[in-house]
Amino acid sequence: MYYSIILFSFMISTIISVLFLKKKSRKLWSMLIAFGLNTVILAFATWLSYYIDEEERISGIGQSMILIFAIPIVTWVNFFVLTFVKSKGIKV
Fold it and tell me: For this UniProt entry, which segments traverse the membrane (predicted)?
């Protein structure tokens, strides 16, 4: 289940940041958007998993920490994807 959440976060943040990069052609902002989306989605999923799963409340938040540790890894992969995307250039 956690891997599907990580994949969902990766896909959503990649799509939105690439669309922003193609529209505005600002790589730094698109990287910040990717980081922000990954953080929001994965932190919310961690909180929701802890809130819903009774076993996790008893044993602690250890198992769902995979989602928190995935934030920098997924963001790093997003940054690599953004380096290969051609932004809308200024035509003279």
Answer: 6-21, 28-52, 64-85
Residues 6+ apart with CB under 8 A from 5: 41, 42, 45, 67
Tokens standing for residue 8: 């969902």
Residue 73 is part of which domain span?
1-88
What is the amino acid identity at position 43?
A: A
Query: How does pLDDT run across 37-68, given as a tens digit for each residue?
Result: 999 999 999 888 888 877 777 777 677 788 88
pTM: 0.81
Dihedral pair phi/psi, residue 90, rounded to 5°: -85, 120
